[in-house]
Amino acid sequence: MSVQVKSFITHKRGETDNDIQDSIDYDLARGRFALSDGVTNSFLPDVLSKMLTQAFVNDEDNASFPPDYLPQRFKEQRDQYMDALDEDARMLQEMVEEEFHIAAATFVGLTLKDNVFSWQVLGDSCLFILPEDGHLRCFCSMPVNISPEWKLKVDFGNRPRQIHSDGVVVGEWTNGKRTILKGWVVLASDALSDWLIKQHNLGNNPIDTLWNLNDNSDFENYVEQEYQTQRLKSDDESVIIIKIDEEAGSSANSESPVVSEPTNSSGPTESSKLPDSSNYDSVYFDYYDDFDYFDYSDYAI
Amino acid sequence: MSEVVKREPLRWGSDQPGHIVFLVDLSGSMVDKIDYVINALQKTCQSILTRCIGGGQVKNRVSVAIYGYNYHIVELLKCDAQGLARALKDAKRENRPLFDKNAEAKPEYQTCMKMGFEKAKQDVDQWIAGQKANGKTAIPAPIVINITDGQPYEGDDVPQDEVFRQTLQAARDLMNVMTMDGNVRIFNVHYDPETSDPTLRFPTSQPTLNENMAFLYQASSPMSDELVLSAQSYGFPEAVSGSRCMMSNEKDASKLASFIEWGSSK
User: Model pTM?
Assistant: First the structure.
């Protein structure tokens, strides 16, 4: 089985890379992928979103997430940040802290291991699965409705499901796992998820469109174009696209694993074998049966 | 057949800043309420500012104008987010309220509300023209929040029915200003802790209890589904589909503050 990955991230229109509150991170060798969207109306959301993606991808044991050290580590980073500010800037940040008290972020984590991928999602960032010759599915904390014509509708309403910097998790995780199939898996922040769903419903191929972008500069130009036509909301836009070329169980023919840390600018496409591990700890319910039932029995005829 | 993609309300940001106008009744009867109103405005301004801070910098994601009205108009504040940051920091450093109730925000005279709506229209017209002059096409619809404790007045010689008619016309002229994002949205809150009349929040039909309630209803914008949801999240379960952006005979000061903050929270 071979896996290729592209990732893109950009800021709200009219702002800069320094203002990005989303964070993406992945490690192909470990088979871990994470995306987090820092909540604008919170205190230092960019710090929290980065801590979450790094912890999920890099911590040796991420079975319990968010990690117990989150509140203390966030406080340390908060103190470092505030100490570096001049009086005026500190006064402003104190106002923000007084208003919001904590940081908040949504989260999508995906693990590929032993020909199974498992996920955990909290909030309106989304995980999409599109098997080759299959139907697009979306997983997030928001209500997802699917019409008989397989058009998706996700209510991106005002229902906060977030991880807080004090370690509190607001809302229930959406967890799942399934055997890997040839196709696509996508992690995306809310505005881009909304766009992806609408484009899919219009009969377009938004995942192909994103995959065919060469680099982050291409992505920024594309986001600008979609923003100008009002098809995409102005927001931080971030996405990780995973292309799986062969189904689980088939022979792997990829190059040697390539390990990298994504940055604000996506590097070239990376490919890798999936990690082998014999100690997969199944902590999530098995979604596979439900998926197949819904996919084929309800709507195939 | 392809579907039409529904346009979403424009989000405020550095590239498409929002604009909020507060109208504050500075008539004489406000004298026992002005401390609380100033405090609520200051907290709301701080809340607005905190949504404009990113990467340690103040981003001009919104501009704010605050006008007081009695027999004339007082410009209390008119600035972008950076100006708002300066004003709030100065007040904090000097340990004083944002506005002085004995000077620029002194309650006196009568409630010439028509003038307030006319000033707000002039303000949003200028702001929209400025955005267009800067090459903006995606211009968020401005928001106007009117805080009063009384009913419109235009002089002893003008019958009250005529006052309501003229003031409502001024409000409608303001509401008819539109951008590609939609019409100017007017929020009215009538705050009177002493009244024995019942409180009315987010009515879905024109009130019949008195003429002032009926006037405020007609002078307030209908609520979109998005506004209903956000109002509910601010602690207003009374907001439902078909509600208007208004509260009348509000006696709970915390509800006044929540209403102002909700109205300016986009």
Answer: 0.78
Predicted pLDDT of residue A249: 54
With tokens 């014999």, the residue in question is A278
Q: What angle do CA B32, B20, B97 make, to 5 degrees?
A: 40
- Is the ipTM reported for this complex over the cut 0.85? no
User: Would you call B134 an interface residue with chain A, using a CB distance cutoff of 8 Å?
Assistant: no
Q: How far B215 CA sits from the closest chain A CA (Å)?
A: 31
Contacting residues for B90 by C-beta, under 8 A, at least 6 apart: none
Q: How far apart are the first and last CA of chain B?
A: 34
Give the C-alpha separation, B201 to B226, whole Å: 17
List the CATH code of the domain at A3-274+282-298. Answer: 3.60.40.10
For residue A105, give the 3-state DSSP assignment: strand
Name the residue among A191, A175, A91, A100 with its Cα closest to residue A139: A175
B14 inside 8 A of chain A by CB: yes
At residue A296, what is the residue type? Y
What does CATH list as the number for B18-263?
3.40.50.410
Which stretches does DSSP call E strand in B37-158?
53-54, 57-58, 62-69, 73-80, 143-148
> Would you call B49 an interface residue with chain A, using a CB distance cutoff of 8 Å?
yes
User: How far apart are alpha carbons A190 and A236 in whole angstroms?
Assistant: 9
